[in-house]
Design a protein that fits this description.
The complex is a heterodimer of chains A (119) and B (212).
Chain A: H1 2-27, E1 33-36, H2 40-46, E2 51-54, H3 55-61, H4 64-67, H5 83-87
Antiparallel strand pairs in A: 1-2
Chain B: H1 2-41, E1 54-56, E2 63-66, H2 75-80, H3 85-89, H4 103-108, E3 131-134, E4 143-147, H5 148-154, H6 157-160, H7 177-181, E5 204-206
Antiparallel strand pairs in B: 1-2, 3-4, 4-5
The chains are: A mainly alpha (119), B alpha+beta (212).
């Protein structure tokens, strides 16, 4: 009996340690950059290249559940993002995100490449 | 010993009663103060047509004088010449969605009536009521409806024409949001003295007809 009582706390500690070690790698998938290549005809007319979304830098300050699945469906190609929707306060322009707390939506070149008129 | 303990008990009782009554008096006084404060906070709204409209001289919200145009400027008027953002924010002025004072709404609601010129002999030019639709280059973003009215309410034609904008349909083909964010076109004023560019939907108001 004495042996089992003594063994239990150490086992618990081991499990806890394993969970703590595993937690960071579980919380951060490190998806890198995601490029939005859609709506090319409209973008070409407006003289704007595709937007690049840096998933890594967002992971650094945000929890997954802050964006997924309420603002963005966590699936490639499942979100029909347009600048109009961003401007109306959806997707990137959601309350507390870009245009309020993060940099404003009019800083085109911070996300889009090849913006005409900006070096 | 018994007497001493009795006296001490009586003393404690008396203390309790004294403290209790003083507390009750204090709370009553507080309630009275609160009542008088709440009656003070219900202040009338500024009316530009009323010469007796109250002027608030300080940032504390206290009434400092009355705006009688026939009398010499009071101390409150002199104090009021300064910039009091806090007093301004307390005046129930209309705000935009970023909490900034909506000066256009102020004009539309006729809350202010600025004189058009310091020279009384100068003729006033009425604002030009003409909207210009500026097409957004993207297929999705709303088109811009530019109101001449509110701009000519504040400014003369020469402020913008022809240096910043060529007064001609299609006369400004190089205009773009990229340029505006770098301080050209609308960005000459918006984001500096006029409302900031973050408020996209304030200009981009006309939805695109169903396109791809």
């Amino acid at each position: 009996m004495v042996m089992t009582i003594k063994a239990r706390p150490s086992l618990l500690l081991l499990i806890l340690a394993a969970v703590f070690l595993a937690a960071p790698s579980y919380a951060k998938p490190k998806l890198g950059n995601i490029q939005f290549e859609r709506k090319s005809t409209s973008r070409e007319r407006a003289g704007i290249g595709p937007a690049t979304f840096p998933h890594d830098s967002h992971e650094a300050t945000l929890e997954c559940k802050e964006c997924h699945p309420k603002i963005f469906k966590a699936k490639r190609g499942a979100n029909d993002i347009t600048m109009k929707k961003n401007m109306e306060g959806k997707y990137c322009g959601s309350p507390g995100c870009h245009n309020t707390n993060a940099f404003p939506l009019y800083e085109c070149a911070k996300c889009h490449t090849k913006v005409r008129g900006i070096k | 010993m018994k007497r001493l303990s009795r006296y001490s008990l009586l003393f404690v009782l008396a203390l309790c009663i004294g403290l209790g009554t003083s507390y009750i008096i204090e709370t009553k006084a507080d309630a009275k103060q609160k009542k008088s404060k709440s009656s003070k906070t219900a202040l009338p709204i500024l009316d530009p047509n009323d010469p007796n409209s109250i002027i608030y001289g300080g940032t504390d919200g206290q009434i400092k004088g009355k705006g009688d145009p026939d009398k010499p400027a009071s101390e409150s008027v002199r104090i009021g010449m300064g910039w009091h953002p806090q007093a301004l924010s307390d005046q129930r002025l209309p705000k935009d969605r970023y909490g900034l004072i909506d000066w256009a709404e102020l004009v539309r609601k006729k809350m202010i009536l600025p004189k058009h010129s310091l020279d009384p002999n100068e003729e006033e030019m009425p604002p030009l009521d003409m909207n210009v639709v500026i097409e957004a280059k993207s297929d999705f973003v709303n088109d811009v409806v530019y109101p001449h009215w509110i701009h000519t309410y504040w400014l003369k034609c020469e402020v913008c024409h022809p240096k910043i904008f060529v007064p001609q349909k299609g006369g400004n083909p190089k205009m773009s949001m990229a340029g505006i964010t770098q301080g050209e076109w609308c960005g000459r004023c918006h984001g500096k003295v006029a409302f900031p560019l973050t408020d996209c939907m304030r200009c981009h108001v006309k939805p695109k007809s169903a396109k791809k």
